[in-house]
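Researcher: First entry.
Model:
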Amino acid sequence: MTMEAKIRMIAGTFILASLALGHWVSPWWYLFTAFVGLNLIQSSFTRWCLMEDILRATGIHKDRMTPANGG
């Protein structure tokens, strides 16, 4: 799975989870939904994504050269 696909999956999961928590637990969870949305907008302008750094730092995603990406 590509880094972009992982980030989209995580962002979608965070948004759906925070919407559910906002509905059933506390409306304050909607602030987390807004945070994720703002990070997506910010990353489209700056081309920097915090989740990308987190995935690389934890080793969940390692850059590998494969025949598909030129290696």
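Researcher: Second entry.
Model:
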Amino acid sequence: MAAAQTRLDIAAENLSNLSSAGYKRREAFGALTATGARVSARASRGRVDGVAEMIAILGAQRAFEGAGKVVSAIDQARQRAAEAARVR
């Protein structure tokens, strides 16, 4: 979820500076580490494209939704395991 949040922050910053003179678009890049995904930003040579940034925001939204479903599934599995462990 932290990676999706970083992607969302970068896209929102790019959109908010769409018409700012001299602003250099930031782009997200990621890497998998032993502790999970890590997303960072770096300056890009390209200009800000509003449509591309909106697509990036939608992608981050889908990542949040997917992570929420995973958390929900884990919670349900824990509940079932706790119920199965109870002495009847």
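Model: Note on the second entry: DSSP finds two helices and two strands in the chain.
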